[in-house]
Amino acid sequence: YRDQLREFVLQYFMRVSDFKRPEAYVPGERTSGQTALPLLSWCPDPGDPRAGFGYSQLYYKLAGSGVIGKFAPAERRRIVDLREIGPVYEWIVVEVRIFDFNLSFQPLGPNYPFVELPLQEKTLVILSREFISEANDPEPGLLGKYGLGYALLRDPTTGLLAYGPGQFDAGCQLIDFKVFGDGQIRTCLTFVVNRPEQIFNLSLNPITWSIDLADFMSLGLASRFFAPLRQAVHPSGRPQGFDPVFTFIAIANLLSGGRAARDLCISRGQLEKDMLVQHFQQHYTLITGSLMTWRSVANWLDPAKIPLWVAEGRSA
Length: 316
Prior knowledge:
Blueprint: H1 2-12, E1 18-20, E2 50-62, E3 68-70, E4 89-105, E5 115-128, E6 133-139, E7 142-153, E8 171-180, E9 185-193, H2 206-217, H3 222-233, H4 244-256, H5 259-264, H6 268-296, H7 308-312
Antiparallel strand pairs: 1-2, 2-3, 2-4, 4-5, 5-7, 6-7, 7-8, 8-9
Helix pairs in contact: 2-3
């Protein structure tokens, strides 16, 4: 049982950390929301049914020779066995897509209209041997401890969102699995990042507004086409704008003499707590989805029993 967990965590976990939710079938003449007037359409739109974290390996540095290379497209979802980081690879750079990530802003409270932005968030991380743990019988009653981790890499460019995946100044993530003598498995996740200085970065430049709007409406595809224009407008890559969220908090507390924070929880501290709760929920979904995959394979030590979609890292 311990050996199976070690194999699952170190070889397959990062390949199955995203999954598809159950999909509903709605009969009718039109079953797709793709129409000429999508904002007015009531047709069902399944969107992206995936949840959890989607990992794709992009670059590597070989141990010993120091050669830096790029993984082939066919290999990107087939994350390397983490036991090879150290002996074979000095490090690998991985892109992480966070599915089903919605950022909500409720200036009037939870019982009134609010703004919710469905974001296609992704970030780059780097894995090295220092983040990989593999220990058999580390202490009495504990059969094994296996885990992974990575450091977060900041995206040098920015858009509407100034804090969150890809926009942290510094941070790291640790995911550890422990198996006990009674067969119980516990998962411990540690996430450390800097506190936010801004949540949104609303530029006063109308060109930036147009680019950000096009990027949002196209779910990030517009960035590929407008990157040269954004670079020309903001050579530093980081436009300086104002944050409507923190501005609202400051004005509300200024006009109320601080009662907005004391009585209505309108404060930076409360916002940070809400973001931590949302972050916990994203990771809870990650682990519960992986648990279903763990239970679906009879023997993780037998390659013949491993489904192809698991071996190839394709969502199921």
